[in-house]
Amino acid sequence: MIDSLHPVVFLLFGSLVLAFLRGVPRHVLLLLLPVLGFLNLLSFDVGTTWTYALAGYQLQILRVDKLSLLFGYLFHLAAFLAAIYSLHVVDRVQHVTGLMYAAPSARSSLAT
Predict the structure, then answer these.
(1) How far apart are the first and last CA of the chain?
(2) Among 11, 19, 53, 65, which has the highest number of CB atoms less than 10 A from its own CB?
(3) Any idea of the CA torsion for 88, 95, 81, 38, to the nearest 10 degrees?
(4) pLDDT tens string 9-39
(5) What does the H/E/C string look like for the chain?
């Protein structure tokens, strides 16, 4: 049983929700998504791995060690700081693509 979501979920799928919001709700969600992702990341223990079998291969989609966990923390912090910096921007495309850009970075720090 998986107790937490993959770290990419909040940043990637939450950024898609940003495309449909305006004004203050978009700004609140923009700041909230990296925080939720970070809180989700705190639930991972060192040594956690998620593997799936596909076509005779074992795919390791998540592996947590001390260094990858540190990078995950740093990427979520960077996404939060970038969200604060981008609050003055009116263009919603930049908000959506900014979080979509941060999502693979946070994911790749915890994958092989």
Answers:
(1) 21
(2) 11
(3) 140
(4) 888 888 888 888 888 998 899 899 999 989 9
(5) CCCCCCCHHHHHHHHHHHCCCCHHHHHHHHHHHHHHHHHHHCCCCCCCEEEEEECCEEEEEEECCHHHHHHHHHHHHHHHHHHHHHHHCCCHHHHHHHHHHHHHHHHHCCCC
* Residue whose token pair is 């979509």: 100
Total Cβ atoms within 10 A of residue 18 = 22
Q: How far apart are CA 82 and CA 97, in angstroms?
A: 12
Cβ-contact 112, 65 below 8 angstroms: no
Cα 71 to Cα 57: distance, rounded to the nearest angstrom: 27
What are the pLDDT digits (tens) for 50-105? 888 888 888 888 888 888 888 888 888 988 998 898 888 888 788 787 877 777 76
> What is the phi/psi pair of residue 106, to 5°?
-70, -35
